[in-house]
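Q: We require from you a single protein entry containing the residue sequence and its fold in token form, and nothing else.
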Amino acid sequence: MSHDTLNRTATPARPETGGATATATMAPAAPAPDVATSGRPAPGTGSPAKPSGHANSHAQTGTKTDAKADAKSDAKADAKAKPRDAFFDNAKYLAIVLVAMGHSWEPLRDGSRTAAALYITVYAFHMPAFIIISGYFSRSFDMRKDRLQRLITGVAVPYILFEVAYTLFKKWADDDPGYPISLTDPWYLTWFLLALFVWRLTTPLWKIVRWPVPLALSIAVLASLSPDIGDDMDLQRVLQFLPFFVIGLSLRPEHFKLVRRKKARILAVPVFAAALVFAYWAAPRMNAAWFYHRDAAQELAAPWWSGAVMTLAMFGCSLVLVACFFAWIPGRTMWCTALGAGTLYGYLLHGFLAKGSRFWDWYDNPWMHTPWGAVLLTLIAGTVVTLLCTPPIQRTFRWAMEPKMTWAFKKDPVGMARTRT
């Protein structure tokens, strides 16, 4: 699930959450004020008297003074951060909690139909919700230098670091020394960072096409029919989840207000209840791998045409459940709101425990498969991922999640001039 989306990409202050990380607002910088149109008389106007050398000097001095004042004002405006929106931080935090809970339920599905139904329901909407938020906060992305730098430091660098870290962890914890490090074949949770990098780079293209969502959905359908795409860059997931990112790019604040009305909150209750009932019925009959969007239909032992049917059907179901999820998200500041800025940390770091629990056979204990064991496991998963989103963890791992890396980029002459002014 961010980085800029899970974390920064999905916060109004700056570019992601969630994933968790998850995905930040990249608002366009204000243009430098034009002295000739800033409400002050242009030099050399207002008096018909013949200008003298002294007058010219005075006019030039005034122009320079005005320019300095404008530069200072512009620098202050750029430095002033937009306030965070509590709604999106709450949404990212609750979504990352559901991610961790879903991972804790995965080994319980074979012995518990209830766990399988909850797992299917959560997987139908938690990643689409993260991706929609990531797309929403990518609307202003362009190829401007500072935004490309944030994309590299906030998405590409964490992807490389955690892809290597996860691979080394698997070699050690799973006793698999031959498992290769591959930056083109993301393992476990890192696929979201690679996908977000690709999606965000394509943002300018989606802004110029006339029907972006139908086009993205057509690409997803074609991907589900194409088993030859392979595993490189997890391209199936990149393409099959693409419509949700493009929907996020197309949304406006009024669309979120629409699903947060009281009527929508009430309507979401029976809709979500119906989804749980259907999931309980479908759990023993349906291949849960459809929800991962990482395989073509033929790779799931299904006829080729079922890829198109399932892609469209699941797209519609996911959108409905995402709307229900957003309808229940509080818009006020709560105890967990501040944790929404750390969803990338929770997303990437909890993966070591989630995978470690399998490598170290924690689920072999029969008590874990009892109802009380499942409840306790769910609470532990929610608590652990919450702790991993806290400020102390963010400060500890910021060097990997949000490196500044000023040494790696050329100096911006315009920015340096403004700073000197």
In short: Residues 145-173 form the longest helix (29 residues). The chain has a mean pLDDT of 83. Residues 81-420 form one domain.
